[in-house]
Write a structure and sequence with these properties.
Helix content: 10-25%
Order of helices and strands: EEEHEHHHEEEE
Radius of gyration: 15 Å
Mean pLDDT: 84
Largest sheet: 5 strands, antiparallel
Number of strands: 8
């Protein structure tokens, strides 16, 4: 595996599913072994089916690129985080922690919608009509 310049955790329904990395050869994504062995793991996308091998691409995987905002929202994100609009991985890391859908990407290691309980250092969620909310 090539050395990663930057990396971010990928979550599916709040569970860490894997890691996406920017390397000198492009990009890679791999599922975590624990996630693959867990009960009912879900694929990040149909284009990245569950397997215990690293995916590699010279460009950011289309699924992850599709999570990045477009149009005026891209302009706002690029301006606020002082990122070049062509820095797709940088935009993925700062804009995709709370995406619509099951998948989120976080460079901080915590899925969106989850909070860290100080006394137990565990993540907590409360079920609410068809979704979840923070505890």
């Amino acid at each position: 595996m090539n050395e990663a310049y930057r990396s971010a955790d990928v979550f599916v329904r709040g569970r860490k599913a894997g890691t996406v990395r920017e390397t000198d050869m492009g990009y890679s994504f791999c599922y975590d072994d624990g996630y693959l062995r867990s009960e009912d793991p879900l694929a990040v996308s149909l284009t990245l089916p569950l397997k215990n091998e690293e995916y590699r691409s010279p460009v950011l995987f289309p699924f992850f690129d599709g999570l990045i905002p477009e149009g005026w929202l891209l302009d706002v994100a690029a301006r606020n985080w002082k990122l070049d609009k062509r820095d797709r991985f940088g935009l993925l890391m700062v804009c995709c922690a709370d995406c619509i859908g099951d998948v989120s990407v976080s460079k901080g290691g915590h899925p969106a919608g989850y909070i860290l309980k100080p006394q137990t250092e565990e993540f907590g969620m409360l079920p609410v009509d068809g979704g979840y909310t923070c505890m």
